[in-house]
C-alpha cells in the first residue's frame, strides 16, 4: 500500500477528486467494509510525477487522517515518504 486513510476520515470526499489515478473510493465501495474512504494500494502512485506531496493528503481537512503505509512492490514510492503510520503531511 502507498497511503492509507485512517478511521478519523469524516467522509467529506475532498480526497477523491484530487487523486490523479482514481485510486480512492468512498465508503460505499470500501472493500474492507469500513465506513471510511479507501485507497487501492495497487493503483496509488503517491502522486510521484504528479505533485510534490500526495494530493489526497493536501486536500484532506482532517489532520493526520492520511498516513503512509507500506510501499507496494511495482508501484512508485514517494522519495520523502515517512515511516508507516506517520501522517503524510508531516513529510511534505
UniProtKB/TrEMBL annotation:
Keywords: Iron, Iron-sulfur, Metal-binding. It holds the Pfam family Fer4_7. InterPro entries: 4Fe4S_Fe-S-bd, 4Fe4S_Fe_S_CS. This is 4Fe-4S dicluster domain-containing protein. Residues 1-29, 37-71 form the 4Fe-4S ferredoxin-type domain. GO terms for molecular function: iron-sulfur cluster binding; metal ion binding. PROSITE patterns: 4FE4S_FER_1, 4FE4S_FER_2. It comes from the Bacteria.
Amino acid at each position: 500500500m502507498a497511503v492509507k486513510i485512517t478511521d478519523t476520515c469524516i467522509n467529506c470526499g475532498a480526497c477523491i477528486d484530487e487523486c490523479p489515478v482514481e485510486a480512492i473510493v468512498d465508503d460505499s465501495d470500501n472493500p474492507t467494509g469500513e465506513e471510511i474512504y479507501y485507497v487501492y494500494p495497487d493503483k496509488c502512485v503517491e502522486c510521484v510525477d504528479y505533485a510534490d506531496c500526495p494530493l489526497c493528503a493536501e486536500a484532506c481537512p482532517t489532520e493526520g487522517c492520511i498516513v503512509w503505509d507500506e510501499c507496494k512492490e511495482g508501484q512508485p514510492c514517494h522519495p520523502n515518504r515517512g515511516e508507516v503510520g506517520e501522517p503524510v503531511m508531516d513529510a511534505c
